[in-house]
Amino acid sequence: MAIIQATDQNFSQEIANGVVLVDFWATWCGPCKMIAPVLEELDAEIGNNVKIVKVDVDNNQATAAEYQIMSIPSLLLFVDGELKAKTAGFQPKEALIDFIDSNK
Q1: How many alpha carbons fall within 13 Å on the CB side of residue 76?
Q2: Integer Cα distance of 18 and 95 in angstroms
Q3: pTM (2 decimals)?
Q4: pLDDT tens string 64-99
Q5: Is 48 within 8 Å of 80 (Cβ atoms)?
Q6: SS3 for 75?
Q7: Which residue stretches of the chain are H helix?
Q8: 29-78 residue pLDDT tens
Q9: Active-site residue set
Q10: Beta-bridge partners for 36
Q11: C-alpha 76: how far from chain center
């Protein structure tokens, strides 16, 4: 499954079903650029079980404010639309897999 770019308008639809990992990021953020290829690898490995959604905080400020995103990258895990867990900062792939598995 491909990584989806969500907006304020479609965010609630994108997280409504299944296990969804949301990456709040910005184009100017160094750690966000570092985590992008990790998310691509994750999508290739577990994309059939976990949907990955990215939200640009500069262009989607309402969603970022709703979830009180104070630092980026922030990664939120949703299950059927319900927020289950939140973490911030760069994470290696193994740590993200553990984060997903322990919170879904």
Answers
A1: 24
A2: 20
A3: 0.97
A4: 999 999 999 999 999 999 999 999 999 999 999 999
A5: no
A6: strand
A7: 11-14, 30-46, 61-66, 93-103
A8: 999 999 999 999 999 999 999 999 999 999 999 999 999 999 999 999 99
A9: 29, 32
A10: none
A11: 5
